[in-house]
Design brief:
Blueprint (H helix, E strand, L loop, with lengths): L7 H11 L11 H7 L8 H9 L14
């Protein structure tokens, strides 16, 4: 077995990319983003909205979500 050395910077960059945070997922739907994340979990609805919204290109955060 071969050991690969990865720097913290490279590991963080890969993680951010795989989580669609840099760059954002692009033009897609919240449902597609949530599916790619294997679900969005939060105790508070606004936290879930923020989690998904961060991954959508052009998404805006609004006050007072719609349940």
């Amino acid at each position: 077995m071969t050991t690969t050395t990865v720097s913290w910077t490279a590991a963080n960059a890969r993680r951010l990319t795989r989580q669609s945070l840099t760059p954002p997922a692009g033009k897609t739907t919240p449902a597609e983003v949530t599916g790619a994340m294997l679900g969005a979990h939060a105790q508070v609805l606004s936290a879930a909205e923020l989690s998904v919204g961060l991954r959508l290109e052009g998404a805006r955060v609004t006050v007072g979500g719609h349940a």
